[in-house]
UniProtKB/TrEMBL annotation:
Disordered as annotated region, ranges: 1-24
Parts of the chain that traverse the membrane: none
Entry similarity comment: Belongs to the glycerate kinase type-1 family.
Organism of this sequence: Streptomyces kanamyceticus
NCBIfam families documented for this protein: glycerate kinase
Compositionally biased residues, Basic and acidic residues: 14-23
EC number: 2.7.1.-
A single MF term (Gene Ontology): glycerate kinase activity
Protein name as it appears in the record: Glycerate kinase
A Gene Ontology BP annotation from the UniProt entry: organic acid phosphorylation
């Protein structure tokens, strides 16, 4: 109760300071942007925006709070927000050993499945849609348990895998056996051979830990909007692979239903079950995870509310502002929270594909794209940092002068 009172008191003080700043015509900027994928990390975006703002308005206080929506970059955002970076040696998506990071602070671990099972771990041009495994994600969760985590934020996205989380669960003690009594091979494709499932051996510490499944994806496990159909092709799955994976994951859910009861079938249709190649399903059915939109979780974890209370202008953004942005991506979550607090929001991006009226409905006053400064997309990608600084100068002239 004392901690809650202290937090409330600090938030009231911050709100009072913000009100005083507005009355005195002072300004304070909060940069809460996601990465520009393939060009800049969220931390680098904040650094470049701050540099550009200060060229035009050097006296304006600027606070940076890099954000993420649960996908790749989530651990980096947590570390930038004050978490400790920790590493573990785990199994990569192709079965080799990789070094994966997670973030830890005060009993809370932020675990990013892409660190262990992500597309970025595959060699260029190499995909393994049928055989890539989430086993390393389970090992990374186990490392968080070993560290004493009482709450685990499990950010899922950017996966190289479509195994329904079977590998993850196996790493945590579940057994998935073929008809001959041997473990089924890694990956989503071999799940077609699954004859029995036994989750009794799951790490008992999981029962005492709150696990939050953080994702910007609300797809079910299978079907036209399921993990294989929607996300399989970006992981190298051919139409035949997609069909095989969908059938294998449906069979996986059927076997789990026999082992665990009807809830296993219900979870297969739950929002988030199809996240990251179905690892969301594994987390829901096997780990007792609760699903929340990733950006909401991360804003809570990173302490966005008190930072927002200190701001008079928020700058958010990501590489491409498009229709996907409106469905749970970081800029939409930041803008919604800022709008609720009555604080103006502008956005930066590499590419803008939303009309001004759509941006307005999302709570974004105006968006500034790198392509407004440099029409050559290749140059925007290669020189994103300097161009973003120029974009930020424009924001300062328009909103801070």
């Amino acid at each position: 109760m004392a901690d809650a009172a202290g937090t409330a008191g600090s938030e009231r003080q911050a709100q009072a300071e913000r009100n005083d700043a507005r009355r005195g015509n002072a300004q304070r900027v909060l940069i809460a942007a996601d990465k520009f994928k393939g060009s800049l990390t969220a931390v680098q975006v904040a650094e470049r925006v701050k540099a550009g703002l200060h060229r035009v308005a050097p006296g304006v206080p600027v606070e940076a709070l890099p954000v993420a929506d649960g996908g790749d970059g989530t651990v980096a955002a947590a570390v930038a927000g004050g978490f400790e970076r920790r590493e573990a040696r785990v199994t990569g998506p192709l079965g080799d050993t990789v070094t994966a990071a997670y973030a830890f602070k005060d009993g809370t671990a932020v675990v990013e499945m892409a660190e262990a099972s992500g597309l970025q771990l595959l060699p260029d041009g190499v995909f393994a849609p049928l055989t890539s495994t989430t086993y390393g994600s389970g090992e990374l969760l186990r490392a968080a348990l070993d560290a004493g985590a009482r709450t685990i934020v499990f950010g899922v996205g950017g996966s190289a895998t479509t195994d329904g989380g079977a590998g993850m669960l196996a790493a945590l003690g579940a057994r998935f056996l073929a008809a001959d009594g041997e473990p089924v091979a890694p990956g989503g494709g071999p799940l077609k051979d699954l004859a029995s499932a036994d989750l009794a051996g799951l790490d008992p510490r999981l029962k005492d830990v709150e696990i939050v499944l953080a994702s910007d994806v609300d797809n079910p496990l299978t079907g036209p909007k399921g993990a294989p159909a929607v996300y399989g092709p970006q992981k190298g799955a051919s139409p035949a692979d997609v069909e095989a994976l969908d059938a294998a994951l449906a069979h996986f859910a059927t076997v789990l239903e026999k082992a665990m009861g009807p809830k296993a079938a219900e979870y297969a249709q739950s929002p988030g079950a199809g996240a990251a190649g179905g690892i969301g399903y594994g987390a829901l059915v096997g780990l007792g995870a609760g699903f929340r939109p990733g950006i909401e979780v991360m804003l809570d974890v990173l302490g966005f509310a008190p930072a927002l209370a200190r701001a008079t202008l928020v700058i958010t953004g990501e590489g491409s502002l498009d229709e996907q942005t409106l469905h749970g991506k970081a800029p939409a979550g930041v803008a919604a929270a800022a709008r609720a607090a009555g604080i103006e929001v502008v956005a930066v991006c590499g590419r803008l594909a939303l009309a001004p009226e759509v941006l307005g409905k999302a709570g974004i006053r105006r968006a500034y794209a790198l392509t407004d400064v440099e029409p050559d997309v290749a140059r925007c990608i290669a020189e994103a940092g300097p161009i973003l600084e120029t974009v930020a100068e424009g924001i300062a002239r328009d909103f801070l002068s």
